[in-house]
Design a protein that fits this description.
Number of strands: 12
CATH topology: Acetylcholine Binding Protein, Chain: A
CATH class: Mainly Beta
Number of helices: 3
Strand content: 35-45%
Helix content: 10-25%
Distance between the termini: 44 Å
Length: 185
């Protein structure tokens, strides 16, 4: 069995690559929402939605944005948009995304959206972490080279973030360790 899993892990690979960053929206020590930006590899997900012409740079219009949302974004809802907010090990869930926008930046499609929490969560005194990963590893999410996860200006001055390799949530049969961010106040 180990030989079969090792062989499948060796030949499997992601089909979509996304670089992300996130801003944790807070009121003091309470997380209320997360705003994310995803940058796709060049040419993806245009092939999924069938749009023939895109601007060379800048935001897409409302009609094209609606096509992306319907055909390549909304279906990610049952997976909480691959966004994982854990509080004391318990997954938190997100309400319907808001402010969904699509633009072209340096030849790459970029999504920006906000995921409000179904129930805001107080961070003080709890183990809180946030990360973006696809357990199947069909999509490979890599944190942005800058601060991948940051706190907005509404956060208490006592709050901090710390990036780490999340050994407790490996993906793809335990062969890939996602990056995550601890949030403390």
């Amino acid at each position: 069995m180990l030989a079969i899993l090792s062989a499948s892990a060796a030949v499997a690979h992601p089909h979509v690559w996304i670089t992300y960053n996130a801003k944790i929206q807070m009121r003091g020590v309470t997380i209320t929402a997360i705003t994310e930006t995803w940058r796709f590899t060049e040419g993806f997900p245009v092939m999924l939605v069938g749009i023939d012409h895109l601007p060379t740079s800048g935001p897409l219009g409302p009609a094209q944005t609606a096509i992306f949302k319907k055909q390549a974004f909304s279906s990610l809802g049952p997976a909480d948009y691959f966004s994982h907010l854990l509080v004391d090990g318990e997954p938190q869930h997100f309400a319907e995304p808001s402010d969904f926008r699509v633009s072209v930046e340096n030849g790459r499609i970029e999504y920006t959206f906000t995921l409000p929490l179904v129930k805001p969560v107080t961070v003080a005194g709890k183990r809180v972490q946030f990360g973006v990963w696809d357990e199947s590893f069909y999509v490979d999410y890599d944190p942005d080279s800058g601060p991948a996860v940051s706190l907005d200006s509404g956060a208490s001055s006592t709050c901090r973030t710390r990036n780490f390799a999340d050994q407790h949530h490996p993906v793809f049969y335990g062969t890939v360790v996602p990056q995550a961010t601890a949030i403390t106040c």
